[in-house]
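Comment thread on ticket #2218

A.B. wrote:
> Attaching the input chain for the structure job we discussed in standup.
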Amino acid sequence: MSGPVLILGAKSDIARAVARSFAEAGHPIQLAARDVARLEDDAADLRTRFGVEVTLHDFDALTIESHGDFVTGLPALPEVAVCAVGAMGTQEGSEADPMAAAHVMRSNFEGPASVMAHLANAMEARGSGTLVGISSVAGDRGRASNYVYGSAKAGFTAFLSGLRNRLAKKGVHVITVLPGFVKTAMTEGMDTPGPLTAEPEEVGAAILNAVKKGTNVIYTRSIWRIVMAVIRNIPEPIFKKTSI
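C.D. wrote:
> Ran it. Output below, let me know if you need it in another format.
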């Protein structure tokens, strides 16, 4: 395995860590994001550290009508595509402003699902490839503290599950990544418990390992699998009284 790896939403801390993991493994890297000139330093760092080819590509997750041309315009169809696109917003902001809520939902579901659909069709036609979608444990059960963000992630998780089922016999694998807390700019200032909080590099290494092994769903850290199993199974009459 040494083909190009596409990183969508390449400006996030997790995306940068993913890019470093695959570059260290020898993969050419395609970095895609809005205002792509801001990725020049990241690209230079990857070339210097790992000696791999790095290309930059303008990509706007919310301009879904451009996604078909974006995929066909890549210098090569990637061997692996990792979608790290997302926006958390705030629950209070989403409750007060439907447009703010729509932005969160489009950023975490509509845009990522759209570009992954185009990539899926291209990989299916080729008969090979791996799609990696970074969703969230927030999508495992709606909670009062973040149900707008969580509902969009829940939709993306279901989309990835269906895509995996569709492509299972087509030579294309789909991986769902469910990070819990990760030390990034997005969570800066939040009180995140240490045992439940991963470094971006942990997520990058976990994704590389999942691609190599053909894993279907990964939680980072693994304790989240237990935590969310408990939360999902709390009876609704009790769950309504909690503030988790």
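A.B. wrote:
> Thanks. Noting for the ticket: The beta strands are 5-8, 29-33, 54-58, 80-83, 129-134, 172-179, 181-182, 197-198, 217-220.
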